Amino acid sequence: MKISVIGLGYLGATHAVAMAKLGHTVIGIEPVPAKIESLKSGHAGFFEPGLDEELAIQLASGRLTFQSSHDESSRDVQLHFICVGTPQLNGSLAADTSYLHSAIKDLAPYLAEDAVVAGKSTVPVGTAAVLSAELKTLTGHSTVNLVWNPEFLREGTALEDSLHPDRLVVGASNQHSQDVLREVYAPMIAEGIPFIVTDLATAELVKSAANAFLATKISFINAMAEIAEVSGADASALAHAIGYDERIGNKFLRNGVGFGGGCLPKDIRALMARAEELGVGQSVAYLKEIDKINIRRRDRVITLLSQELGSLSGKKVLVLGAAFKPDSDDVRDSPALEIAFLINAAGAEAIVHDPIALSGVNKKHPELTTETDLHKAFIGVDAVVLATEWTDYRNLDPATVSGVSNKLIIDGRNVLDVSRWQNAGFKVLALGKTITN
Ligand code: UGA
Questions:
Q1: Average pLDDT for the chain
Q2: Ligand 1 atom nearest 261 alpha carbon
Q3: C-alpha span between 311 and 231 (Å, rounded)
Q4: Is 263 noted as a catalytic residue in this protein?
Q5: What residues are paired with 25 via a beta bridge?
Q6: Which residues make beta-bridge pairs with 198?
Q7: Residue 436 confidence (pLDDT) above 80
Q8: Is 85 in the pocket of ligand 1 (CB under 6 A)?
Q9: What gap in Å lies between CA 269 and CA 272, rounded to an integer?
Q10: By C-alpha distance, which of 187, 101, 178 is closest to 147?
Q11: 118: which of 126, 146, 201, 330 is 20 to 30 A away, CA to CA?
Q12: Which atom of ligand 1 approaches the CA of 217 most closely?
């Protein structure tokens, strides 16, 4: 099928590569010249395991091309995927949907009457209906085939998730649109991946609901961690035990410094804002608490540091990790960086290390001190905080660490081999439990 993918950030670049891999002819459209140049030269422009390799293969196949705007080649495209960002609006909890409106406006002059437009971005429920009406006005077509097809990929496993999702969800208002989506995803459907058809609003809400549920699970276990910390219990052991109940499940119950990234934090806020607009704010008012629990976990690290070091003024603290999760260079709403800011605000100096994400940190937050060499980063520090669970940190042999001023490490992700670090002379503290040396 000839398709276009509009917006080539995390979602769009991955989707474009995935669709080419399925055998479709894909035109990727992105107005930012640097992104286009990067993609054409085989670099997605962000770190995602396996993506650049697959991008190179698909570029070489000739099925995948990139351009900065629509042109005559868009006129016979059968399916346009819209993958633009919907970030949090400045000064509000709501999502900024302006990129979607621009994408629709740019597409309208080239849209064939029977072509299908599939929105993949995460949007406030009701957005698709507005976009559909806009498209009708702009094109003058009597019917427009707009569907909502939310994406559930996770950073770090984005390509694999795009090609083998748990389910495909398609909110469609007519049979033709549904058939086109079935056709584009035929290899996945043949693999047994469920294809769920809903109305537009349900499909939009499925995505917001899924992310709200995931955020709730994480904050639930972090709330239990708060209780564990003052009662002598261990939140990780608790999660392990309750997770055996299939109704609860053991995934997304890792307690620690909490969730970050470009999705969960902004999506729960956008859902609260949308519910408020719809007059049912009370329904998800509890998400305010989910957000607060999450933010409190970052404060907990500062409390532990102060308990151990007294005044933080003039102290040096190494923060291991800058990305919001391992296998990603994304530092949006990163718990690790938030902790670094809190350390600096308390009068200490945070030294930030990350195996991949430091160039982004230096660009966005030049005020932070960073160190690229892991062993050098330890020299002269009064404490270490593990904030992102990169394999490099899990595998680090503490016996090879030298030059620290004070052997204290706070495990913010509950991943360290505690006895190994203790044997190397470190005092180990962890979130959700109390470890006494
Ligand atoms: C999330 C969802 O998992 C995807 O399904 C969704 O498609 C995506 O948002 C999106 O809306 O685009 P992602 O943000 O890539 O994916 O990362 P997650 O794996 O969900 O992790 C989010 C945060 O939660 C990370 O900071 C991670 O460290 C934290 N987390 C995760 C925990 O603190 N505990 C856990 O048990 C799991």
A1: 97
A2: 14
A3: 26
A4: yes
A5: 2
A6: 171
A7: no
A8: no
A9: 5
A10: 178
A11: 330
A12: 36
The H or E element spanning position 217 is: helix 200-231
pLDDT-derived band of residue 368, with 50, 70 and 90 as boundaries? Answer: very high
Give the tokens for residue 47: 């770190």
Query: Is 122's C-beta closer than 6 angstroms to any atom of ligand 1?
Result: yes
Please state, in angstroms and rounded to a whole number, the distance separating the CA atoms of residues 84 and 121. 6
Task: Give φ, ψ of 118 to 5 degrees.
Answer: -115, 115
Q: What is the pLDDT of residue 396?
A: 97
152 lines ligand 1 (CB under 6 A): yes
Place of tokens 């219990």: 233
Cβ-contact 81, 263 below 8 angstroms = no
Across 145-151, average pLDDT: 98
Task: State the amino acid at position 225 in one-letter form.
Answer: A
CA 179 to chain centre: 30
Q: Is the CB of 253 under 6 A from ligand 1?
A: yes
Structure tokens at 83: 């993958």
Which of 212, 263, 348, 352 is labelled catalytic?
263
Q: What is the dihedral of CA 390, 394, 396, 402, to 10 degrees?
A: 90
Cα 114 to Cα 77, 195, 207, 330, 362, distances in angstroms: 10, 22, 27, 38, 47
Burial (0-12, 13-18, 19+ Cβ within 10 Å), 160: middle
pLDDT in tens, 98-128: 999 999 999 999 999 999 999 999 999 999 9
Pairing of strands 349-353, 369-370: parallel
The residue whose CB lies within 8 Å of the most ligand 1 atoms, and thus the one to mutate among 51, 83, 155, 266, is 155
